[in-house]
Amino acid sequence: xxxxxxxxxxxxxxxxxxxxxxxxxxxxxxxxxxxxxxxxxxxxxxxxxxxxxxxxxxxxxxxxxxxxxxxxxxxxxxxxxxxxxxxxxxxxxxxxxxxxxxxxxxxxxxxxxxxxxxxxxxxxxxxxxxxxxxxxxxxxxxxxxxxxxxxxxxxxxxxxxxxxxxxxxxxxxxxxxxxxxxxxxxxxxxxxxxxxxxxxxxxxxxxxxxxxxxxxxxxxxxxxxxxxxxxxxxxxxxxxxxxxxxxxxxxxxxxxxxxxxxxxxxxxxxxxxxxxxxxxxxxxxxxxxxxxxxxxxxxxxxxxxxxxxxxxxxxxxxxxxxxxxxx
Length: 327
What we know:
By secondary structure, the protein is an alpha/beta fold. 44% of the residues lie in helices and 22% in strands.
């Protein structure tokens, strides 16, 4: 299968013949390649229009590769750009200095052209993977979630989309502050991942949409066991997130999103599900829309609740064909 990892590469090399060779080789592999003959020129070009990856020689006039890497990492515009260092000497000290300065990988001259392309794609793949993760929970983010749903649709394997949402999280976050809110989200993400792993193993996928919204992709037969495990674990976790007096009372006094004062129970989880067990799901947007609808339905009932879409998708099947399960 063709590797689709491509991007914009800035080659920083003062030997014109080698620079041209790198440009031709990477260009033939689908990369857009720019050239710079020294470190200062490369720094100016990268800051003006950050590339996806910089391939930089160590020994260059005006500014060597080590200094170039340090300056790139010190600037917010280029701190996340992938960098591969080219070194002619192959000395361990040079490699360590480059990696310490912030390089992601290194290549020793002379290098094999196939290895060059493989290394470039590998570094870009790792960078793309990291960018697709939620920085808060470390779980895969929206890009990975979309890819996973698309892959299941393409393979035509049976699957279900579980959309998990914390109830009363905004009230909790307003009461205890963003730091406590972030701690609650991290703990919830870990809980969901461990619960899913225990019930469904590695065949299931867990992602973090953002905020208090999470997604699980699992086999249809795993929906209810996974939900029960999540509900049970979260019932134990939720009280520990509150101050002892609030946990003991089982509620907090706060204002809702409309500014109305009231008593709000401890955090619970609502889960909405779209599944191929009852209808064919042919597009990611369709699966997400159904799971979102079911999640909204689950949130109408107090407490942790599961709502699974049971409609066949036929014109005669109505919204009454659903199933609800409480914690």
